[in-house]
Amino acid sequence: MPRSAIPCPTTVICMTTNIDEIKRLGKLLQAFTLFFILLAPVALVILLSMKGPLGMVNVQAERLITHTPLSFIQALPIVLVGLLTPATYLVGFFFIHRLFGLYAKGIVFSTQNITTIRNCGFVLVSVDFVRILQSAITGPVLSSLKITENYFAVDIGFSMLIIGLLVIFISRVMKMGLEIYERDQLTI
Length: 188
Fold this sequence. Notes:
This protein is an all-alpha fold. It has one domain (22-40, 70-187). Helices cover 68% and strands 2% of the residues. It contains 5 helices and 2 strands, in the order E-E-H-H-H-H-H. The chain has helices spanning 19-51, 72-82, 84-104, 111-144, 159-187; strands at 4-5, 16-17. The chain has a two-stranded antiparallel sheet with strand order 1-2. The relative contact order is 0.13.
């Protein structure tokens, strides 16, 4: 297997990498993320069949007024609210799938990679805001359908926000590094 060196500025310790290994790993991880993308709808159908539409949202049992089966018209808004967070994660998996696709092509440090990594960061940041939105509209939707008593609750968490901001920062550093490398290539 031929080994190719990634050219680096003299201030950076460079290691030779095997581009074929990166391509192989990229293909493997791309297939893995595709598996999750395709598995997500199946998992949601299983969740719906086992727990019903109320299993898609976070509602405490003591808040329920009615325990009767829901009609399609009642279930649809609950399912749509419940899909907000999983849909956000699916968008994230789409960007990760795209990133691994670039690796599978042997594209490791490029503007495309940096943009994809930055988009993953934005999705991670949005996960917490989507969760807040989902928790804020769950109560009014359920109470308007007469499934629960009137209530309004907001679940605030920022764990993904911190990780997302870190990923965005790393993509910015990668962009600066690529610009420095390209500038150095022009001066040689």
